[in-house]
Amino acid sequence: MSDESDSEEHFHDSGSEEEDSDSATESDSEDDSDSLDGTANRDPTFRENELFAPVVEDFDESEDKIRPEFGVSRRTSPLQMLQKFLTDGIIGDVVRETNRYAEQDWTRHPASYTDWKPVDLAQIWQFLAITFMMGLVKKPSIREYWSTDELIQTPFFATVMSRNRFQGILRALHFSNNENYTGRDRFCKLGSFMHDILGNFSSAILPGKNICIDETLLAYKGRLSFRQYNPKKRGRFGIKMFVLCDCAFKFVLNILPYQGKSTPLADRTWVKDLGFGGATVLTLLQGYLNKAHRVVLDNWFLGPKLAKIMLAEKTYVLGTVQRRRKGMPKMRGKLAKGRVETYCDDEILIERWSDRREVCMLNTFVPHSMRIAESSNPRNTREKPATVLLYNSIMGAVDNVDKSIKPYQSVRKSYKWYKKVVFNMIDVATYNSMILYNHLHADQRAVPYKDFVMKIVREIQEKYPTLKKPIGRPPTVPRTENPAFPVRLKPCHHIAVKHLDKNGTPSYSDCIYCKHHAEYSPKRKTTPFSCEICKVRLCIQGGDSCFKRYHTDIKLKKISTTPQNTQSQPHTQISQPRLPEDIDTLGPNAVQFILSPNHEIVVFDEDGNPLTGAQFSDESSLPPI
């Protein structure tokens, strides 16, 4: 258990001078109402070293921790679990507001949006996949994630999204309409993002008997009116958040960000009666009162008055408490190491215990008793109050969240504080998804947070693949065509059309086959005919015409199939060839050409008029011209 001085944290506002007065006023009201020292604040009703026998209601524990209506099971994948919190509706709002802000910001900074294209839901998930991996792969700057230097290269990022596109989305990323800004709600920049995610958190599980509230600090050193300073935290400066967790499940149930005087408390009058810490506790517990929960708090929140109010709401409390809180009994002198004093009335028990330093415990449901605390070091095995052992065993849920997330958090340095809050909320949603996933697979080894994030990224790659834009010269073969079996060899109707110019005379162009195969036709020929399917000019004269060779020669060398000039209107197009009864009916001036590798033939006269067609089982049976 941490010492009393360690758990007592003094936060100071360090924002702008204009708005700093709001937070200072509220902090002063907390000290004036619930933290003053002196005999006038001592409660004379406490009895010293007497038996405390609380009447405690049993908690109705549910067998299934996850609510059935939440819709998850063992078959739910990590990404599907995360999308239960980050729903399509939430991501859709991000898409809409990001595109809206890009249009608004373009009028002020057009140079920053020269290559901008509106984002969609798939690209936001690709963007999140990159931010997840940035938490796992640490580099000093965003630019280095797309570096081609073989010493530091990480190919994953370039395969998902270009650097310019990522930075463009990061710049335009928005969550509310700036035109709706009123100036009172300091978290209006988040829109409904945080509210919707927290609603999904509370609808996911049924909390157990023990729940706890603690504070955490999201590091931020930028200019912000409600920025906090805590020298005992590693980041020191940042945005303070109060977190409600299920102790056994270690699941985040609710979060209340500190905003100074505009913090959204359920009842502003609680600040005057209970201090800001007590008002925070009652706000976070809305929806969890009158259910016989055991709430664990530290000495920043807890006081005798708050304990009695919660007891009236059939909610029990356990935690450390400061001696200077209003309503505390008068405690004289110093205790010798290992000594215990108790003070109780009909509702609460206060224990004063001296270990390395004095600790005061307050609770409303555990009678006083001393138990042996075993230790691997025999010198540390000694008696401790049962409340201290219980507090140590169930208080670390919020610390467990920080321990899991912070080594791999996707939050990066940013001038926009609300973006850091959003990325932190996404990390918390990922953490809660991991808790549910491991609970549903309790018979298997628990998946650590890092591995769980990697599973999500791989699923995003599969569900939202990146469609790459072709680079360089257009290919000679259409991208949708299988090079092993090109369109020219497919057994379909390769229809020949005759092209006429504006005056109605035949429009001639080079035969593409004669042009590239001098061994078959030493003299280059021109022709008015082209294949409608392949879009190439081919001469159709001769028993072994270029049209036939082009559509039947499997070993044909690669030639350019760029469509030639076909602006003139075709004279005739045949879709269903007629089959003759006798090939001798063909006139002496008839011209023939091949339709497909099945040797299906359509015959034209010299002016391009269709005469008839036939099928032959052998190329040698083709009639001469």
UniProtKB/TrEMBL annotation:
- Quote the InterPro entries the UniProt record gives: PGBD (IPR029526)
The PiggyBac transposable element-derived protein domain covers 77-434
| Acidic residues bias (residue ranges) | 16-35
Q: What segment(s) does the record annotate as region Disordered?
A: 1-58, 559-582
- Give the domain of life: Eukaryota
Stretches with biased composition (Polar residues): 559-576
Tell me the lineage of the source organism. Answer: Eukaryota, Metazoa, Ecdysozoa, Arthropoda, Hexapoda
Tell me any Pfam family this protein matches: DDE_Tnp_1_7
Tell me the leader sequence span: none
Q: From the Swiss-Prot or TrEMBL record, give the protein name.
A: PiggyBac transposable element-derived protein 4
